[in-house]
Design a protein that fits this description.
Helices cover about 25% and strands about 35% of the residues. It is of the alpha/beta class. The protein has a four-stranded mixed beta sheet with strand order 1-4-3-2. β3 and β4 form a beta hairpin. The chain is globular.
Amino acid sequence: MSQQMIFVNLPVNDLEASKKFFTGLGYTINPQFSDENAASVVISDTIVVMLLTKPFYATFTDKGIADTKTTSEVLICLSAESRDKVDELVDRAIEIGGTATGKTQDMGFMYGRAFDDLDGHTWEIMWMDPAAVQG
């Protein structure tokens, strides 16, 4: 059975600024699937975020595009390998223009924080103790 991938498509106001933000977090842009309308941000082997200019994004839907500064459209949650990695990524996101959002979640076996990117999309970064997952 092949491994499934996820492609998260997000509308952005300024493609170049968004590319700079995500590469500033340590992710790479796949030039094969990027142009003046879109940037393919490689999060992992199975997760790709497609940053799409709003006019280009609008070609994929008949629905209005949410104003993510005032409306929540989706919460994107990524796992981290440790509590320190959660803090490292969220602190870096805030340092390069993201906004802290929500409250730190610390349940001992699980730890998470969140930030909004330049366009207001919410990214939750979570760590869970592997021993807790095994039950």
